Amino acid sequence: MKIIKVHNKQFQVHITKEQVDNRIIELAEIINKTYSGKNPLLLSILSGSFMFTSDLMKKITIDCELTFMRIKSYAGLKSGGDVKILMGVSEEINDRHVLVIEDIIDTGNTIQQIFHQVKKYNPKDLKVMSFLFKPEAMKTDYKPDYVGFEVENKFFVGYGLDYDGHGRNHPGVYILSE
Ligand code: IMP
Ligand code: MG
Question: Which of 14, 16, 34, 113 is the most exposed place for a label (fewest CB within 10 A)?
């Protein structure tokens, strides 16, 4: 589908399912090479990164573990300042190689707060892989370690990303039509 409607807004395809699939293979390969023999703990940030995490996991061939953190930071189309942690991490992080799996980095506010929280548990190494990254929207000098796609400072849905709870189900990424 080239155009979709979510709530009252129209979105058009920006990254196709095929492009996503190809990039996932490359990202998984980075993880397989970087974390071989390190038994990394993948820390997936719910809800947005559920699809990304699932596809990525299927292409990871090394020994690894997976856990989740649930947070909420967005209402509608605008990034809110405060990040609410609804479900914390329970697995032992101390001395582990931790890779945070995020759906999208917009202002960088959310990932900074997550980073700060996880650091408190003293991981051996803490890195971030984000499916999408909006460099122009960044309000800090934070940079994710690994990025699926850099995108412009617009609003996107699909592949786990939502607009007020809807649109997560589409297998590609869609951009808001002006
Ligand atoms: P940040 O704190 O401004 O970096 O916002 C990050 C969070 O806002 C992400 O984890 C998403 O849940 C949400 N978000 C940011 N940009 C978009 C977008 O374009 N579409 C859907 N959700 C977004
Ligand atoms: Mg998110």
Answer: 16
Count of alpha carbons within 13 Å of 158, Cβ hemisphere only? 23
Ligand nearest to the CA of 73: 1
pLDDT tens column, 52-97: 999 999 999 999 999 999 887 655 566 656 677 777 787 789 999 9
| C-beta of 52 in contact with ligand 1 (< 6 A) | no
The closest-lying atom of ligand 1 relative to the alpha carbon of residue 45 is 10
Residues 6+ apart with CB under 8 A from 4: 10, 11, 12, 157, 158, 167, 170, 174
Is 82 among the catalytic positions? no
Q: How far apart are CA 90 and CA 116, in angstroms?
A: 16
pTM of the model: 0.94
The DSSP code sequence of 99-129 is EEEEEEESSSHHHHHHHHHHHTT--SEEEEE
Q: Answer for the pair 11, 174: CB distance below 8 angstroms, yes or no.
A: yes
> Tokens at residue 154, please?
């617009």
- Catalytic hit among 82, 95, 106, 125: 106
Q: Whose CA is nearest to atom 10 of ligand 1?
A: 104
